[in-house]
């Protein structure tokens, strides 16, 4: 790593330190118990929307009703998106005359975008009509992010309220996340991206004669509008197959930096919102620091390994130079450079974004391992919009339960007793991902047909399979590639894994919100397990890393670790 | 050895029985009944080992899911070992055989931990059972005649006559008479206590012995459900229910076990893909090392031992739930009398009127108190001794042929007449009228002093000699030494202390300030206590209290931890969820400490157990895959000899750590009162960081030993 790499990282951290608390404060006002503030016209717009949908914005839901609304909304979203993909050849807004998606790919993509995963077994420019991109995928980029925020807010309410039967209203939370948070931010970032040269048009591909005399058709589209929310909503589904490595999505070093900032912004501001909503800002800070330290460690580790020459290349004597003092340039544009690529990779996997600015398959084994491990953490450093916060809060509950006993009281978090009901739900939450990810990956390496889809041999191939299921299970969506995954097996299995990874976690999280919300708040005293201290952040990090480490260490050893160490021989 | 205040001071008779506390440390733990053997005493170990083996039955093991998984894994491994025996090399057979053996040992050690904990209770139960010999009861028939019958035939509501020398046949309530009762069988306290009908000391316990007088009791428990029976079944752990926190922890442990089971099972496909399929023996070894066996093995022993610690302090809890709740309590309601103060008013100061030397007042007060045998009277003599070195013996000459005027409740004064002198001390108005009857007057200065003492919350006694008022003695409740420090400790632990007293608010406030309690309830009525508890509970606090009267019952029932005094009424005992056999209200503080220690032990060993896994991974994973990926060698940070010895060392460590931690599980983790933050820092360092580091050392050491004995 060079000085300029450190300076870049430093500026990013400073910007986050300024804007995350500010945005957190704003988010807290959006979901304040006293109702949101803000401009009158937004309230009027919302009222009209609620009236149209027949929703009483002042009525609240129990966790069950909240979960049912969420599932109903998501199911309808999948159906709608599936229909759009299957019928796109018959619909307007398809200048490239692209054909309909196959059923398996359509279902994979529909589930992928609705679950905020944005795993793509296709290349956007050659598969998706402009109408499908705009009315389908971009819409889901907004609403799937809003669903995640809604669940996080519901869980925070459960922690903040005392003896409450309800945890808020799903439809209201969903709407306000979009109208008051995602749309305004998306507008700002779209303008910033356009200023850097990200394209935005509705025309068909532009065909030009190349210098060599050939003819090349270059597709454009409404890229900037989709790009902004792709990152802000930690979606990650690129307009183009190359994602943020494509010059139309991410043309300059500055746009690359802005994109990294955009995908980290909301996840890092949510713990601040949490602290304000429960009226104890230090509690939010403890969660923030746990997230931040994990992210920072992964970012610097990835940058360190990526700016060194890949072990394999070292081995065969290939010297690789880059403009900023060396590094692994394979799969990386010079526009981006290895350090920025690694920072992007760590951030996109630490959040559940999954956008990529370089080919993850080409990352050095160690840097790729960092990206993999980041997702294995369960997307909590800082995680997806909403999902990062509720994931970390559930880890906090588990940490309090294990370590909290050590102060001689039955564990409590924020004055809420953590008892059998919560532990049951938290255990389910912890179990869901290992079950779906490990079982699916184990099946994939066992079946001869699916084994054939693995393009690389040995530990790198294993990493590719594991990565695909860890990525889909954790709703990340970044691909290691190197896997021909547009097959029925992968399309369907991944869709199942994505759905389980999303709703299998959201429902226990909401149930915990309901269960905690019904409890009385025990006032904090000297005998209370302190959860607003650096020590608690450290315990939280320890629990997250240990639980994940215990689950995935063997497979990490066989994949990236073996590959990394082998390279040194 | 501190004596325990046996009786309620508010009862007039109590004054005679109350023993002044001589020590300030609240009731040190007193070992009850049977002497316990050391944990690893040979005969005991053998017996526990037998029990441990009997517990191997799957139907028993099933209740401990973590260890049940180990048992199934061990059986599976044993079968595979037997099948493959012929076709494997000698070294593989030796390795597999040893793994099977140590896995088996892991389960036996776990059961041994439980058996040891239970065994300690059993010894106690046996001692108790010996007192429960079948005795003959004298039942009173409806017509008033008396029949002899066996204890077992008594039913609820029957009336029995118990005379001096008889053993009380079963739990009951005295409806007629008064007797001194030897309760040493259940309390271990040899001094007899008074039990009488009416009031708050009317209940008797089966198995205790009437020493004098005769009482009629009404049977209040069915045979087999008596106090003693309940105590026996509790210390035996026969009907032990898992406590709420234990259930929650078990759920988490099961969750972790499933995750790690999955990790191990799915590892095989990845291993096959990587070209290095693993043997069943190795996979089961990995599984057992990873799942939280340490805490899984010790969890129930910790619970039993916690209950046992309570019983050894002569406190009987109706459920483990109550012990846990004790750890959670953040408000303690403490009776002033006997808990915070010595229970008797004591002379603290002589206040002479102008013109009277202080020493003269002290001398007169002492002489006037010779005939006062009440604790107050004695305290006056003591104060005179202490401040002026006055000894009663020195006055023997003067007192030759003197007439002692004894203290009585009607005259409310005492004194002595000698030569021409008459000295008296007593309540203000009693002395006033005496002085006037002697032809003297009471001066305003004395009245002012009386008023002064009263407003300070004290009791004024006036001293007069020969129709002249000499001055006033200040009597007050004396707060036990060390209480303020103790309450400060409790405050540091986040526990609020509330003093409950029948005194008026002025007196109460004075004592509360002196004792350093956080709050007080003055002129407390049972209703007030109840509503105070409710208010605190609504605010989210858990409340603990002690009580003995029937009118305490609602509050005892409402409190999260209600400790009834054994000397109290049956109603109080039934309402509370603990009974203190020593009837020592101070013990509430200890009960809270025991509850906390139980939870801390559980949490510390859970943390330790999970933290241990890091080292085990570093032992086993390289060992498993070094063959196919020699490059993984750097992961073998402990430089273990070879794959077999590495895996074996991890398995052996995993088994031995259970054995090594049994004493800690039974004794409980060291507990001192401190704030949650400092307790956390300490335990996190020892059991968290220590839990990560220790197995690295342990596994390496075992690996070396294995090398030395030639197993590789």
Main sheet makeup of chain A:
2 strands, antiparallel
| Number of helical elements of chain A | 19
Instruction: State the helix count of chain B.
Output: 25
Low-confidence stretches of chain B: 1-37
Largest interface: A-B, 69 and 77 residues
DSSP strand (E) fraction of chain A? under 5%
Domains of chain A (count): 1
Q: What is the radius of gyration of chain A computed over CA atoms, rounded to a whole number of angstroms?
A: 23 Å
Strand elements of chain B, count: 20
Task: Characterize the overall form of chain A.
Answer: globular
Q: Share of helix among residues of chain A? A: 55-70%
Write the layout of secondary structure elements.
The complex is a heterodimer of chains A (569) and B (712).
Chain A (H helix, E strand, L loop, with lengths): L2 H28 L9 H14 L9 H25 L15 H12 L9 H4 L2 H31 L9 H26 L10 E4 L5 E4 L4 H10 L20 H25 L3 H26 L4 H6 L21 H13 L14 H12 L10 H18 L7 E2 L2 E2 L2 H27 L1 H5 L5 H16 L14 H30 L16 H34 L2
Antiparallel strand pairs in A: 1-2, 3-4
Helix pairs in contact in A: 1-9, 3-4, 3-6, 3-18, 4-18, 6-7, 6-8, 6-14, 6-18, 7-8, 8-9, 9-10, 9-12, 10-12, 10-13, 10-19, 12-13, 13-17, 13-19, 14-15, 14-19, 15-17, 15-18, 17-18, 17-19
Chain B lengths: L13 H4 L24 H13 L3 H4 L3 H20 L5 H42 L4 E5 L5 E5 L8 E5 L8 E11 L1 H4 L5 E4 L6 E2 L4 E11 L7 H10 L7 H30 L6 H11 L2 H20 L2 E3 L2 H9 L2 E5 H5 E12 L5 H12 L5 H14 L14 E3 L7 E6 L2 E7 H10 L6 H12 L3 E7 L2 E12 L3 H10 L3 E5 L4 H11 L3 E3 L4 H13 L4 E5 L5 H6 L2 E5 L4 H6 L2 E3 L6 H25 L1 H13 L17 H25 L8 H33 L4
Parallel strand pairs in B: 9-16, 9-18, 16-17, 18-19, 19-20
Antiparallel strand pairs in B: 1-2, 1-3, 3-7, 4-5, 4-6, 4-7, 8-20, 10-15, 11-12, 12-13, 13-14, 14-15
